[in-house]
Design brief:
alpha+beta, 5 strands, 16 helices, 3 domains, about 350 residues, five-stranded antiparallel sheet, single chain
Length: about 350
């Protein structure tokens, strides 16, 4: 064979192998990534989850949540300070830090996926319970979800337990789910815009090392009955992702943890009453926050004065040492540079995506 032709064929072959190998690796890596590209708003993020849940598309449901970015940014040391303890959650539901190797990173991602899948399962079970037509099975299902049920050799309970197990495995494909409007968190609870709530959410955002944080809710119609799904969302860069099902607003509504933020007929929340006054609740909350602007601005200025006086003449390194020492003395202490009072009123509104109009 002509040497020149052989040389060209060799180059082409090598280039082809390199190209295909490179494409194959990129495709494999892309396929392994759990989180999607993110959304332009918290409302888009929760709506995408609701639509994916309606489709029963697990991959799409997962992709609406921060997974890889969450695991990479998560600050376990900050979480430990916040809790003032090391708990099993440090090792199970939350990422461990620092993520120093690929194996630990993959463990963190799988842990996050597992935690989210558990929330999705509880959403399914809540819908199964709400649409169950057998009152005995429904009662035992609800009790088993909330407190657990001991059988104690009771033949009737054992029979019902078998029915509950069978029912838990049934499909929600025949449940009619439609998606309604999104709701602002202060429309469900005016406590959301209180200083205590904002400070707590800021601390949570610091643990996630987030660039923005907001609770949001969406109205669902499940077999003709109204429901509300609550969600915490987080911003990384300019993109929003779902963070936790339930979250801050779910806690304020006193939803049971096993409901994962889904307020439905048997959740202990009067959904119809909640929705009938959400506009009034939201207006009152926003007016209350507007009225607090002057006080916020004054406290912000005072906080900055005290901080500057405390750190005057110190280098950045000396300030780090000083603050670390103070925080070690009080594990629940917060780095003053992260305190919500470092934010102006306008910065606070932007961080939490709160609209006063």
């Amino acid at each position: 064979m002509n040497k020149k032709i052989l040389k060209v064929m060799t180059v082409v072959t090598i280039a082809t192998v390199f190209f295909l190998g490179g494409c194959g690796n990129r495709t494999a890596n892309d396929a392994k990534k759990v989180e999607g590209a993110g959304f332009n708003s918290p409302e888009e993020a929760i709506t995408a989850y609701a639509e994916a849940f309606k489709e029963q598309n697990l991959e799409k449901m997962m992709s609406t949540f921060a997974v890889e970015t969450y695991c990479e940014r998560y600050d376990a040391n900050e979480y430990t300070r916040w809790m003032s303890a090391i708990t099993p959650q440090n090792y199970m539901d939350q990422p461990t830090a620092p993520t120093t190797d690929p194996f630990t990173r993959e463990l963190n991602i799988e842990s996050r996926r597992g935690s989210l899948a558990e929330s999705f399962r509880y959403h399914k079970l809540a819908i199964l319970s709400a649409t169950c037509t057998d009152n005995e099975v429904k009662a035992l299902l609800d009790e088993s979800l909330e407190t657990g049920v001991a059988l104690h050799g009771d033949e009737n309970i054992i029979r019902l337990a078998s029915e509950v197990t069978r029912y838990n495995a049934s499909s929600i494909a025949n449940v009619e789910i439609s998606i309604g409007e999104t709701l602002q968190p202060e429309e469900l609870s005016n406590e959301y815009v209180s200083l205590t709530s904002l400070r707590r959410m800021k601390r949570h955002a610091d643990v996630c090392r987030a660039d923005g944080f907001k609770s949001v809710a969406i109205v669902l119609n499940i077999d003709g009955e109204k429901a509300v799904l609550c969600m915490d969302t987080v911003r990384y860069g300019d993109k929003w992702y779902n963070l936790y099902c339930g979250g801050n607003v779910g806690n304020m509504l006193l939803l049971h943890n096993k409901k994962r933020g889904l307020a439905i007929s048997d959740s202990g929340v009067d959904v119809e009453a909640l929705l009938s006054k959400h506009g009034e609740t939201g207006r009152a909350a926003r007016e209350e926050l507007k009225a607090a602007e002057a006080e916020w601005t004054e406290q912000h200025a005072e906080f900055l004065r005290e901080y500057r006086a405390w750190t005057e003449g110190l280098s950045d390194r000396e300030i780090d040492v000083l603050i670390e020492k103070e925080m070690l003395q009080d594990l629940r202490g917060i780095d003053p540079r992260n305190d919500i009072m470092m934010m102006s009123f306008e910065e606070m509104l932007a961080f939490f995506e709160i609209r006063l109009d």
